[in-house]
Amino acid sequence: MSWSPDVTEVKSWNEWDTLRHVIVGRADDCHIPPPEPALDAKVPEDSDMRGQWGRRPQETIDRANELLDGFAAQLQARGVRVDRPTPYDFSKPVGTPDWEAESSFGCMPPRDVLLTVGREILEATMSYRCRWFEYLCYRPLLQQYYDADPRMRHEAAPKPRLTDADYHPDYLSDAIGEAKRLEWAAAKHFVTTEEEPLFDAADVLRFGRDLVVQHGFTTNLKGIDWLQRHYPDHRVHAVNFPGDPYPIHIDATFTPLRPGLILNNPQRRLPEDQRAMFERNGWEIVDAAQPAHNAPPPLCYSSVWLSMNVLVLDPKTVCVEKSEVYQADQLDKLGMEVVPVDLRDAYAFGGGLHCCTADVYRDGDCEDYFPKA
After folding, report:
1. Does any domain span residue 32?
2. Rounded CA separation 218/128 (Å)
3. Residue 148, Cβ neighbours under 10 Å: how many?
4. For residue 208, what are the β-bridge partners?
5. What are the pLDDT digits (tens) for 65-110?
6. How far is CA 155 from CA 17, 53, 144, 150, 210, in A?
7. Beta-ladder partners of 339
């Protein structure tokens, strides 16, 4: 049976097959969270966000929602079914018996929380205390999908305690310096310890039978091991990018476009030994074009490399932020139709076009793109 927008079905095996149904986030009530170990390590030392927290200004929230609504409308005009999360009051303090946080974060980037593998949607552990309850924004949708699709699996990874034992204390300094950060990244010494499984969904890329997972600030080796045990029929590959002093999520570093083609951040190249799997199977890894901007927008966690945080609609069509003209030109030359999307003023709320979406349904089945071991 062909896909129908009137029938709810969960299925997505990769990052590039034709997108039919997606969740697009909202900026409502988004907060800059108060300091905590995971967050402090993420904020660049020269960032204007250092020492600031609280609700974002209403005019910036309104502008971000305008852009997110516009992106949703663009997708709908192309025949994609779009759902939206249900925000809760992010200003309320949250906590467990182990810790307290003065506020939550928001629900602009569903990609961080939800991982769709085949017919299952998995809620990630998350490694930020302020994001502990973020999954609640998506529960109304997941309940709807579960009720409508008898084959859909709704799973939640075990909630971590997120005590201080989950974080290396040497990352709490305000003056580590980029040289030391790069040294630590090359040595795979990240802010997260191996106390318990930790992973964000945005650290996982889906290649059919294979899952490629970044080991970094938000995902530890124990989290990658948990994913392998949870998906025993998949091959799970840990990757890391030594050139990234703030390795948060993989989707501004390594971006598959279609079978056989991947963009790689030229400042964060995949190490040679980890490229072997791709090269043996005929995949081309090309350096992404340079960003069009020299700095991120105000009060933004992310780097300028959100330029390569694109959303692939099908193997020939890709959404690119409209100001990222160099990335758009490169993708055009790679034979793809480029759909420009105005989203830069929403970057600060959680990321780019890939971040602010989560797949519900893509055409295609589970294929083996890496048959040569």
Report:
1. yes
2. 8
3. 12
4. 368
5. 999 999 999 999 999 999 999 999 999 999 999 999 999 999 999 9
6. 23, 32, 14, 14, 19
7. 319
The CATH number of whichever domain residue 314 belongs to comes to 3.75.10.10
- Indicate whether 8 belongs to any domain: no
What span, in angstroms and rounded, lies between the C-alpha atoms of 373 and 279? 11
- Write the CA distances from 107 to 136, 299, 358, integer angstroms: 10, 17, 12
For residue 354, give its domain range: 19-362
For the question of whether the overall pTM of this predicted structure is more than 0.90, the answer is yes
Task: Supply the DSSP symbol for 103.
Answer: -
The residue type of 322 is K
Kindly state whether residue 116 falls inside one of the protein's structural domains: yes
- pLDDT for the residue numbered 102: 93
Total structural domains in the chain? 1
Q: Give me the residue label for tokens 């490169």.
A: 330
C-beta of residue 192 within 8 angstroms of C-beta of residue 162: no
**Could you count the other beta carbons within 10 Å of the beta carbon of residue 306?**
26
Catalytically active residues are 200, 249, 355
Strands (E) in 79-174, as ranges, are 81-83, 94-95, 100-101, 114-117, 120-123, 153-156
Tell me the pairing of strands 19-24 and 81-83.
parallel
Residue 230: burial class (beta carbons within 10 Å; 0-12, 13-18, 19+): middle
